[in-house]
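ESCALATION

Customer reports they have been waiting on this structure for their group meeting. Please prioritize. Original submission:
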Amino acid sequence: MKIRIVTIGVYGFDEASFFDALGAAKVDTFCDIRSRRGVRGATYAFANSKRLQARLAELSIRYIYRKELGPTKAVRDKQAAADKATKTTKRKRTALGEAFIEAYHTECLAAFEPHSLLDELASDAQVVALFCVETAPEACHRSLVADKLAKTLHLEVEDILP
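Update from on-call: job pushed to the front of the queue and completed.
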């Protein structure tokens, strides 16, 4: 089974363009790697877990939740401190801080076995979307997960941007 990985965040999309982007990329499996599966505000309410899963089901896109890939509060706090030091808001961040990257690797990625994700996929899966919220992949842990998958499993990765 040859899998292609895409990454996508919700910020910057509206509901229609988000689901259109998934369709255009031919995503058949959606892997939610958020710690918390809610998004504040009406603009992104479509990305709240129950609504998101219902819409994906309508589009015949399988939904997988990998909570262990979501950064813990302690790891998120490292990024919050870096953002505060640089006076950068979460939605304006363009890169992850070194402390976050190191902590995420130690607390989340070290125990992540990429083959376990493959084992969870349906036999006909071809395009898997790694999902979190940030617009820029470089500003989100999904880029770290995608990098590990790409290197370990020799998979192609594409970032879907608004």
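Sent to customer with the following note: The helical segments are 15-24, 49-58, 73-86, 98-109, 114-120, 142-153.
Escalation resolved.
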